[in-house]
Structure formats: C-alpha cells, structure tokens
Amino acid sequence: MARQLGFARVIFFAIFLLVSLANAQKEKIFDVRNYGAKGDGRTDNRKAFLRAWSDACNLKGTSRVYIPRGVFMLGSVEFVGPCKGPIVFLMTGTLRAPAGPSLNTQQWITFRYVNKLIVKGGGTLDGQGASAWPYNTCSKNNNCPTLPISMGFAFVTNARIKQIKSINSKNGHLSFFACKNVNVTNVELIAPAESPNTDGIKIGSSSDFRISRSKISTGDDCVAILSGSKNIDISYVYCGPGHGISVGSLGGSPGDDNVSGLVVKHCTFSGTDNGVRIKTWESPYKSIASNFTFEDIVMDKVRNPIIVDQTYCPHPPCSQQTSSHVQIRDVTYRNIRGTSSSEIAVSMDCSKSVPCKNIVMSDINLSHLGQGPLKSSCSYVDGRFYGRNNPPPCF
Ligand SMILES: *[C@@H]1O[C@H](CO)[C@@H](O)[C@H](O)[C@H]1NC(C)=O
Ligand SMILES: *[C@@H]1O[C@H](CO)[C@@H](O)[C@H](O)[C@H]1NC(C)=O
Ligand SMILES: *[C@@H]1O[C@H](CO)[C@@H](O)[C@H](O)[C@H]1NC(C)=O
Ligand SMILES: *[C@@H]1O[C@H](CO)[C@@H](O)[C@H](O)[C@H]1NC(C)=O
Questions:
Q1: Which of 10, 157, 286, 322 is the most buried (most CB within 10 A)?
Q2: 287: Cα within 13 Å, side-chain hemisphere
Q3: Is any ligand 1 atom within 6 A of the Cβ of residue 28?
C-alpha cells in the first residue's frame, strides 16, 4: 500500500513537473528590474517599463511584464500594440505618478491597440491626485491644464482587468475607448468624495463590457457610460461616495452615438448623490439611449436614487437654445429598495422634443430619511408600472 502510494506520488510529481515546464516555456517573464527599474520610490522608471513592454510585445506566445513589490515612480507611458501574443501586465507593487497637475498627456498609463491583455496582480496605481485637484479649474478657466486619467485603454480587445487598486487619481481612474470584450473584476477605486472629476470607470464607444465585484468610492461618477457604448453589464458593484452610475452625459457633441443594452444589477449605492442616472445636454444633436435594465439595487441614503435629467447643465449657464434631442426609451427599473435622503426619490425630467418612451417601473420600495412622504416628479414620460411602488409613480 505504502509503496503504491509512493509510486503514485512520483507519477504525480513527474506530471506536475512536465506541466510546469510546458507552462514555463509557453509564458515568458519580463521583470522590469532586468531593464533597470527600481522600486525605490524615487527613480523614474519610464524607459525601463517601455523597454520591458517592447520585448514582451515582440514575443510570440504569452509574455508577462512583471512589476514586483516596491514603489515604482513612473512618468506617463504608452504601451502600444499590436503584439505578437497575449500579454499579462502583472503588477504586484505600487506605480506612483509624478506629483503636480500635468503630465502633458491625457492619460498617465495607456494601453493602445492590444489584443488579449490581462492587467492584474494586486498592485496599486497611485495618481498623487491631491497635488493636482486644486488645478481643476476648467469650468471657469479655458487655460487650465489637462489632468491625466490614471489608466486608459484604447482599441483594446479581449481583456481582463482584475485585482488592482487605484487611489487618488488626478482625473478619472480607468477609462476605456473603442474597446471590445473587456471584463473588469475585483478592482477597488478610491479618491475622496470632494475630489473633482475623479470618475471611477469611463466607457465610451465600447461593447461587450462587464464590471463586477468591485468597490468604487470617489468624487464623481462611479461608472460613466458614454456615447457609442453597447452591451454593458454591471453587477455586484458597491458605489459610494460618488455620483452614482450614469449614462452620459449624452448629446454634448454632433458625433454622439447611440447607447444601448445596459444592465445594472445587484449593486449597492451608499451615501451617493445619485443612484442610477441618465443625463443628456440640451442640444440639437440626435441619438438614442435604449434598452437599459436597473434591477435588484440597494440605495442607502442616496440623494437622487432614480434620476433622468435631460436638462443637464453642471456649470450654468449652458447654451440651452433647444431641448435635448437624445431619445430615451425601453428602460426598466425593477426591485429597487432602501432609503432616499431627499423628498423626490424618482425624478424623470425628459425632453419636450423627444419624450421618454416605454419606461417600466416595478417594485420600487424606497423610504424617506427625512420628514414626510416620498414623491416622484415627471415631465414628458410615457411609462407603465407594476407591483407596489413607493414613491407612487407619476406617469
Ligand atoms: C468575460 O466574461 C464572459 C462571461 O463570463 C466570458 O464569456 C468572456 O469570455 C470573458 N472575456 C474575457 C476577455 O475574459
Ligand atoms: C442610432 O440608432 C438609430 C435607430 O436605430 C439609427 O437610425 C442610427 O443610425 C443610429 N446612429 C448611429 C450613429 O449608428
Ligand atoms: C437589450 O440588452 C440586452 C443586454 O445587453 C441584450 O442581451 C439584448 O439583446 C438587447 N435587446 C435588444 C432588443 O437590443
Ligand atoms: C418596503 O421596505 C420596508 C422597509 O425596508 C419593508 O418593511 C416593507 O416590507 C417593504 N415593502 C414591500 C412591499 O416589500
């Protein structure tokens, strides 16, 4: 018996060795330290990171860019593909941006034209935002610096972003443009409630996108779904503090494209300004925002739990020559419960030119944290409701 067991162990070990060897051959590691990077919190590691990326990108087969523990100072970098094989960007340490408002780029770290990318490893992006936020003056001053987003992805396909943390971004934390089939899981994005424009995740012109099991506590939208996005699924996300999960703002420019197929479910909003929001500018630019489902959502002390704002104007005065031309339709709100800190828990301020169509509400059970009953407020809404609803619907 003992001999048999011993034999089985040997076989098992041999198989294990073979599998590991095969894996080692398949996956090559590019440790940034071998390119001169130093995790001492002082050395600028731009060149070392770019050289490691370049070698990894040129390898046929899977390569890993490895950032070990330590604090790696990093100026702005752009990791550009297409690459010859899949790439894992394995960050275990902290990447720290230079202090101050500007890096002379829109994004601090950018991945562009990469197919099959994985960013993971439990590491942290530290944007050093506190040194940049006082320079966020663009709403008052045209001569303002461009504050960079911490990590941006453009034309990236078949990607997974998981187990990373981003703190104190100068502008937004993560941004995606023209990406397809991206899964974001177990990320933590943190900045103070009063930090300006520190959106958690911005998604534009992208499709087949999933965000799940993540915590976003920031000074602007937890997730913003922008023009041209399709099939976005958000689940098990905790948002707060922040401005909620928003579609838009839409209709801000003539090229604005349709947004369709959004599901937000099993999410919690805590102490946020908004829960689920759709916002559009008053402008002549036409597009369609349709097929959205918001369900199984908990609101905890949220100021505007359900809000559609088609007269969006964050820094008045706005031009407002016309009502919004973004058509909002086929939107379902189902099983939304918890507390509202303001009296108007459901606010649907739709467009006079293109009223909201086919809005469905069922089982909305909110209660007021202050005095008196909750109310809904509607203008230009066509909708139906089912089940018990508090506040009572206004359409
Ligand atoms: C993302 O998740 C979905 C659903 O689990 C899966 O079908 C898809 O292949 C995943 N994409 C990537 C790039 O891992
Ligand atoms: C938006 O959707 C409408 C209706 O489906 C379509 O006619 C229009 O071409 C779409 N816009 C763009 C830019 O694809
Ligand atoms: C609505 O969105 C869901 C989820 O993204 C998608 O599966 C479905 O096909 C869409 N329906 C239509 C009619 O576009
Ligand atoms: C609504 O929520 C309150 C407080 O959480 C709860 O007591 C009540 O049973 C709920 N009503 C329905 C119809 O679910």
A1: 157
A2: 26
A3: no
Asked if residue 257 lies in contact with residue 234, where contact means CB atoms within 8 angstroms, the answer is: no
Task: Extract the tokens encoding 338.
Answer: 């918890």
Instruction: Give the number of the ligand closest to the Cα of residue 231.
Output: 3
Q: What is the pLDDT of residue 346?
A: 98
DSSP for 245-274, written as a single string: EEEEEESSSTT---EEEEEEEEEEEES-SE
Name beta bridge partners: 209: 182, 232
Whole-number Å distance between alpha carbons of 321 and 144: 27
Query: How many whole angstroms separate alpha carbon 156 and alpha carbon 222?
Result: 21
Record the tokens describing residue 343, joined without a space: 């009296």
Q: Residue 19 contacts by C-beta under 8 Å, 6 or more apart in sequence?
A: none
pLDDT tens figures, 134-162: 999 888 888 888 999 999 999 999 999 99
Q: CA of 30: how far to CAs of 43, 108, 166, in Å?
A: 19, 21, 23
Taking the C-alpha atoms of residue 222 and residue 173, their distance in angstroms, rounded to an integer, is 10
Would the pTM count as exceeding 0.85?
yes
C-alpha 349, offset from chain centre: 25
Tell me, in angstroms, the distance from the centre of ligand 1 to residue 217's CA: 25
Residue 17: its H or E element: helix 2-26
Question: Measured between alpha carbons, how far is 167 from 218 in angstroms, rounded to an integer?
Answer: 9
Q: Residue 49: which region, alpha, beta or left (left: phi > 0; alpha: psi -120 to 50)?
A: alpha
Instruction: Return the DSSP state at 202.
Output: E
Band (1; pLDDT cuts 50, 70, 90):
very low
Superfamily holding 68-134+145-386: Single-stranded right-handed beta-helix, Pectin lyase-like (2.160.20.10)
> Which position among 243, 273, 300, 349 bears the catalytic label?
243
Helix (H), strand (E) counts: the chain: 2, 30
- Report strand pairing: 287-302 vs 344-349: unpaired
Q: Domain extents for the chain?
A: 68-134+145-386
Closest C-alpha residue for ligand 2 atom 10: 258
Q: How far is the CA of 365 from the centre of ligand 4 (A)?
A: 6
Closest CA to 278 of 291, 296, 297: 291
